[in-house]
Structure to design on (295 residues):
């Protein structure tokens, strides 16, 4: 398999090359404009991402992928960093070829975006690329106010106030919640894995990643791993899972236990990341499992 690197701010992982619609032009371009794409999507457009099975996931600038097929100007890839039962090699899907570039070198020293969003200045192209929370790029050197990093387009500059050296972490449950709280009010986007919008499992995946834990990409897979916790012994930062048929059917949702009978989660299309009292909601009847990944 041939390796590539994502060369746009955010790339959608499409179900097939025919999935993008006319209104998806900003997110399949290079440069991609995730902000313009999200803001121009109607409620119906957003529902179709899920109901018509258009999008599988998203990838941040600099993410490594492996080609498994090619169809003219589209590349089918797997994403090793997003574990899934769908493929042992990583999450599968399609990306426009022009959103991919040659792989970046594997280095121990990487700069990671810790702000919700920031800008990357490309020195050679003299262009700005918006970056999401948790984007990682190889470190080159320091400047007084910024880090110089390596990109698919040559050296780039990221502000030190918005980024730091990536380090091994083992966040507590409360720390995972703190990472998530900064996104309260952010739109739910099906397949979302960036600070322009998360889906339910994309939100839990990325907040765990911020805390040093790599967990499966989807809610159904997240429910199968981690440490099983009795429903009445959940602690803040644990994951709550919900299934159809009053908790007996297929797992369809995940959120963080927030304490005091509350949940921090990305609800569904048309809603925003919120803290919700579980009592009296459908979630109270659908709660089926609690898992803990933090230590």
């Amino acid at each position: 398999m041939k390796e590539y690197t994502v060369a746009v701010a955010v790339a959608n992982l499409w179900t097939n090359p025919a999935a993008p619609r006319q209104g998806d032009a900003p997110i399949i371009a290079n440069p991609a404009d995730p902000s313009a794409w999200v803001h121009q999507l109607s409620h119906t457009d957003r529902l179709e991402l899920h109901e018509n099975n258009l999008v599988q996931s998203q990838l941040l600038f600099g993410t490594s992928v492996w080609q498994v097929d090619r169809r003219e100007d589209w590349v089918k890839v797997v994403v090793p960093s997003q574990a899934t039962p769908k493929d042992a090699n990583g999450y599968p899907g399609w990306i426009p070829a022009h959103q991919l570039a040659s792989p970046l070198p594997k280095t121990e020293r990487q700069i990671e975006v810790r702000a919700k969003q920031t800008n990357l200045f490309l020195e050679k192209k003299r262009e700005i690329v918006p970056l999401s929370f948790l984007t990682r790029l190889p470190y080159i050197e320091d400047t007084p106010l910024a880090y110089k990093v390596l990109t698919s387009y040559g050296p780039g500059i990221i502000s030190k106030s918005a980024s730091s050296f990536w380090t091994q972490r083992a966040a507590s449950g409360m720390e995972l919640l703190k990472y998530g709280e900064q996104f309260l009010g952010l739109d739910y986007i099906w397949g979302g894995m960036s600070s322009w919008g998360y889906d339910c499992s994309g939100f839990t995946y990325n907040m765990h990643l911020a805390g040093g834990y790599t967990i499966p990409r989807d809610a159904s897979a997240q429910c199968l791993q981690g440490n099983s916790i009795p429903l009445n012994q959940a602690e803040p930062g644990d994951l709550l899972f919900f299934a159809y048929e009053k908790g007996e059917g297929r797992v369809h949702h995940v959120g963080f236990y927030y304490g005091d009978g509350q949940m921090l989660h990305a609800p569904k299309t048309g809603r925003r990341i919120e803290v919700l009292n579980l009592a009296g909601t459908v979630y109270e009847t659908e709660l089926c499992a609690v898992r803990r990944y933090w230590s």
Summary: The domain at 173-292 is CATH 3.90.1720.10 (endopeptidase fold (from Nostoc punctiforme)).
